[in-house]
């Protein structure tokens, strides 16, 4: 497999790759999905290094970038690609940035706890998340055709208003972004998040049939679908106890946790 100083590339199958940034505390994963006529890149990472260097080595097909949500750690290399797609509810964030999110704090977050050398081109003091006009907008139920491979878009707000999960119908992979991952809490405790929406979104992904694997955007690469039984329990537990609101803290479940 491809060796790179910054990105860790792992083959999920011969048409699906995880491109991970394991030298950074956020342990972010982006995903390249290759069809017969097009490829999709789910998110573009932190922006510490240029992801296009990697995708150029993995495919010659045109790449549609599909944004799970417009947080800085998911749009880092957006500026390197021509075809950008985002949910309609986060179009304005992509174009203008997230209102009220201090750049200084973002720069501290991006620059801390990095355990491997960063490229010389990376300067945290001038780091600025991508801003630009998307090529197209996504909404719930959209189907993205890659040629013998279809991706279905699920609007899953809560962590952010235009967050989406992406389901690969042929393979059964569900890409959950920051809606579901393990080890560190799933966040819905600051003003642009919505705890009630997050619980509804967890319930929504649980109804998708024939999921073979779940790929969140952080921490462990690939979770088995058994975690969905615990997600179902979590949805009921959080609702029954009235915990789906700001300030109720971290709620721990088997294999994941959520913070409101
Ligand atoms: Zn996020
Ligand atoms: Zn994230």
Give descriptors for this structure.
5 helices, 260 residues, 18% helix, Metallo-beta-lactamase, Chain A, alpha/beta, binds zinc ion, 5-stranded mixed β-sheet, globular
Topology:
Blueprint: E1 8-13, E2 16-21, E3 28-34, E4 39-42, H1 52-58, E5 63-66, E6 83-87, H2 91-96, H3 103-111, E7 136-138, E8 143-145, E9 150-155, E10 164-168, E11 173-177, E12 186-187, H4 195-206, E13 213-216, H5 227-240, E14 250-253, E15 256-259
Parallel strand pairs: 4-5, 5-6, 6-7, 11-13, 12-15
Antiparallel strand pairs: 1-2, 2-3, 3-4, 8-9, 9-10, 10-11, 14-15
Structure description:
The chain has 260 residues and is of the alpha/beta class. It has one domain (8-178, 211-224): Metallo-beta-lactamase, Chain A (4-Layer Sandwich). It is built from five helices and 15 strands. The chain has helices at 52-58, 91-96, 103-111, 195-206, 227-240, and strands at residues 8-13, 16-21, 28-34, 39-42, 63-66, 83-87, 136-138, 143-145, 150-155, 164-168, 173-177, 186-187, 213-216, 250-253, 256-259. The strands form three sheets. A seven-stranded mixed sheet has the order 1-2-3-4-5-6-7, with no helix packed on it. It has a five-stranded mixed sheet with strand order 8-9-10-11-13. β1 and β2 form a beta hairpin. It is globular and about 50 Å long. The model has no long low-confidence stretch (mean pLDDT 97). It binds zinc ion (2 copies). One zinc ion is lined by residues 71, 73-74, 178, 217-218.
Strand count, sense and closure of the main sheet?
7 strands, mixed
Number of domains: 1
The fourth-level CATH homologous superfamily is: Ribonuclease Z/Hydroxyacylglutathione hydrolase-like
- CATH overall fold name: Metallo-beta-lactamase, Chain A
What is the helix fraction of residues, given as a range? 10-25%
Ligands bound to this protein structure: zinc ion
Number of helices: 5
